[in-house]
Task: structure prediction
Amino acid sequence: MKRLVAIAILFVLLQTSFAGYESMKDKESINSSELMEELESNEITGYLMKAGYPILPYIARIYEFPAGAKINVIVKAKNIEKRIGDVKIAPPPRADGFENVELKYETAEFEIYPEKWYDYNIGIGRKNGELTTILTVYLYPDRITKDGVIMHADDFEINIDYELPSETVIKADEYDLLIICPQEWENEIESFAQHKENHGVRTLVETV
Result:
């Protein structure tokens, strides 16, 4: 039997262990629903380390859905207050053998960093032999202005609207190549998919 090859475009999955994730795999009988979660900003997962930018904490939450689920994410930052404090600037990465060399670098220019209170990625992974839609939500409890004022959120409310597929959308023996991409890329990817089909590679395009 041919093995299904999956290509996930712009799929970012942090290579670290997360304290929180929720699986919708056991809720396949529900076609559409809403998930809401509230959490405090002290559940820190790690720190943003972008060279030239302030080192600030982030919180990551992972949610799993059956492949083919349609997902919409809205996050509200709550109990926001202003703070004054010093933050460190992330240095550029050091190459092996140059750990003791002093590096000179400029601080990045920005109005406020990060630009939003949250961000998220939707990708495809394989778990227990099944393709799974993986949603990773990143929360930023501290944002800093160019003047050094820290905007701090004490709490977050995560709202996820999702629609589960009515049936398994992908069967391993039906396709040779699966391409997952953002919906706005679909037209461009379809031409590539047709090229693969013309060369005998059974191809399926799924958008997220």
